[in-house]
Design brief:
This protein has 166 residues and is of the alpha/beta class. Helix content is 57%, strand content 14%. The protein has a single domain, classed as Response regulator (Rossmann fold), CATH 3.40.50. Strands 2-1-3-4-5 form a 5-stranded parallel β-sheet, with helices on both faces. The radius of gyration is 24 Å and the shape is elongated. The model has no long low-confidence stretch (mean pLDDT 89).
Length: 166
């Protein structure tokens, strides 16, 4: 199976932090990282081809939209790409809300955020790998069942022929 390049889409309004995050992700995962600093830029590049989406919870924008609003728009498009939130806040209610809305993780921007982010991305990659293996096994199982059915049918046909002519 051919290994594909990990594609990560980041929405982060802090330019310095976004650059640091992008370079760290590229270094650890050799990933293609697309960074957007506002919602309109995000939705210009957004599609379902990304493997991971990372959203800042609070965004500095005129509409006062949050990362949670962006998550809603993503899910409205029936895109189930894993979404990880990063935030400097430590509010349990907001954390629970985004999990209810379909977020994969909510990570506080602290000294350990990149280790936590890496752990979550590694889990996502492992789940994707296991899903691919399951799909492969399922396909092999279908082919096997088809062969068994054909063999069984041929066996019945041969048995009928032998019984008829002997």
């Amino acid at each position: 199976m051919e290994k594909t390049l990990l594609k990560i889409l980041v929405l982060e309004d802090n330019t310095f932090f976004a650059g640091l995050l992008s370079e760290s992700l590229k270094g650890k995962y050799q990933a293609q990282v697309s960074v957007c600093e506002n919602i309109s830029a995000f939705f210009k590049v957004f599609d379902d081809s990304f493997d991971v989406i990372i959203l800042d919870y609070f965004l500095d924008n005129q509409e006062k939209d949050t990362g949670k609003d962006v998550l809603h728009k993503i899910r409205e498009q029936n895109v189930d790409t894993p979404v990880i939130f990063l935030s400097s806040m430590d509010d349990i209610n907001s954390t629970v809300d985004v999990f209810h809305d379909g977020a994969t993780d909510f990570i506080k921007k602290d000294d350990m955020f990149f280790a936590k982010l890496s752990f979550t991305i590694d889990k996502i990659l492992k789940i994707n790998e296991l899903q691919s293996e399951m799909e492969e096994i399922s396909e092999k199982s279908k082919k096997f069942k088809k062969r068994v059915a054909i063999s069984f049918s041929l066996g019945i046909l041969v048995l009928s022929y032998l019984l008829f002519f002997y």
